[in-house]
Amino acid sequence: MSRAGGRIFKRLKGADEALGEFLSRVRIEPLDAEAMPLEHCLNRVLAKDIVAPRDVPDFDRAAMDGYAVISADVLGASQTNPAILRVVGRAGVGSPPGSLRISEGEAVAVATGSPLPEGADAVVMVEHTRAISDSEIEVYSPVTPGENVQAAGEDVRAGEVILARGTKLRPWDLGMLAALGIASVEVVRRPRVAIISTGDELSEPGEPGRPGAILNSSRFILSAMVEELGGVPVYLGIARDSLDDIRSRISEGLRACDAVLITGGTSVGEGDLVPDAINSLGEPGMIAHGISIRPGMPTGLAAIGGKPIISLSGYPVAAMIGFMALARPLILALLGSKGDPIPRIRARMARRVASSGARTFVRVRVKRGAGGDYWAEPLRSSGSGVISSVVKADGLVVIPERREGIEEGEEVEVELLRPLD
After folding, report:
1. Which of 139, 132, 133, 136 has the alpha carbon at shortest distance from 73?
2. pLDDT per residue over 66-88, tens digit each?
3. CA distance 114 to 63
4. Whose CA is closest to 116, among 68, 52, 47?
5. DSSP string of 369-398?
6. Rounded to whole angstroms, how far apart are CA atoms 305 and 357?
7. In whole angstroms, what is the distance from residue 135 CA to residue 168 CA?
8. 3-state secondary structure (DSSP) of residue 280
9. How confident is the model at residue 249 (pLDDT cuts 50, 70, 90)?
10. In the structure, how many helices (H) and strands (E) does the chain have?
11. Domains along the chain?
């Protein structure tokens, strides 16, 4: 048994065990695809593989300014024994491929990116040549076949899977698609995620203040985290401490959205109505309640008719950690994406940190030591509701389950929350 806020959970489930059971019992189906123009596809997830419709480039082209030549014509060329070639034309960028041809002893002036004349197999850089008349040049350096030439298909071959389904599109991916002549692609519809806050004590920023009110900060943290992952946050307001109000808002979220996040009221006290509200709505209801993570132990995982619900702590930092550990994998599964890699560095722990055996998320500041190595200094003010502990932190050190802590000087991995100074 474990305590949360002074109350007792009969059994805590490990985060991985709970997540595995949860994902196996909710409906994770491919979301609809929608065609979007490239200019609106940044950070969207591909709904299907992109197969290159053509070679890139689709013709041999010069990789340098200079002269297209037959490499055998300049074999052995040097300053003291230059090869003399007759210039029979000029190819600019955008010239039609195949419009020029050279034969033995001839050359064509080319610019970087211009099509290689038929018959040519190399380009001599302009600095290795000298014009001796309007129609003749001296070449002072030999070239090998293919030198200074970008061959057709060197970048991409027609029929190649250039971007796989589930890829989150980055700026260079959009450039590749444009180079293939693709103006729009099918991307996964952004999952709609309902966000519900609970508690009579809550008020919204900007509302008239009232004695004892707590400003609803968790809503903004979760909405931003959903949006950052590629989802659409749908805020459904504050449910008061009423079973009917909580049920009504969860029902609205289930009807309108692909998943529901609800904060507060999720522990095991008399006033914690969220688990009862969820269980009253249908099967299977609560799948796991009480997860072995700190902060965030009261987190619950549930489903109604296959649609996922995650009940998170009302404390903002605990809600954030619960989201990272359990909601992030859910949203990525809905998108069919692996998500962005989390930046990490190796550091040494500046002092010992104890753990209760739960998966513990320690907020740390990272400093560089005199020897150039990194040290992770745990923040001393780190309660579940101390938002400044995240704002001031550079990263998180995750202590695995069933460990008693991390010793001073022990090497750890830091998941960075922001760039280091």
Report:
1. 139
2. 999 999 999 999 999 999 999 99
3. 8
4. 68
5. -TTS-EEEEE-S---TT-THHHHS-SEEEE
6. 34
7. 53
8. coil
9. very high
10. 8, 30
11. 2-31+190-335 (3.40.980.10), 33-56+169-188 (3.90.105.10), 61-150 (2.170.190.11), 344-416 (2.40.340.10)
